[in-house]
Amino acid sequence: xxxxxxxxxxxxxxxxxxxxxxxxxxxxxxxxxxxxxxxxxxxxxxxxxxxxxxxxxxxxxxxxxxxxxxxxxxxxxxxxxxxxxxxxxxxxxxxxxxxxxxxxxxxxxxxxxxxxxxxxxxxxxxxxxxxxxxxxxxxxxxxxxxxxxxxxxxxxxxxxxxxxxxxxxxxxxxxxxxxxxxxxxxxxxxxxxxxxxxxxxxxxxxx
Length: 207
Prior knowledge:
This protein is an alpha+beta fold.
């Protein structure tokens, strides 16, 4: 790749496959990788989500590596495509493995709207076995569910997404995630079974 290659140019190149995009991101230092994930507008994230249909399915281990103890958070820095000022598009999804050993992850959204809106708790699950979901991505972030066991120390109090203003943001929503690289994934938001045409990128922090 040339010295001026960047994520935007690869996404906009019809000949650039998801494998090339993943290799590019994998070869970057962590700070530049994060910066690249924050460079895509809505149409570019939509295009990347389309390219990522050909990627290998995500696993829960892409979000919380297997060596991570239960109730230990792993942070993924995110940027969404909502019609907001640039600084307010930034957020984090924080994931942790539950103590009960079940194949799922607990999580919530750390964002500028945590106070007024709420934490947006969720349960993340593999989509394997549900063909209509598998086509959307390997992992679903399911806001129909919230953690039903202990969460990491320091997390907000677990509340249902039907409570307060977060009803209008998270309630009845699912995000479907596709793999981009070892650290990066892209998600598409659905309200019930309806695609919202809003996307977000996640970049896992290195522990």
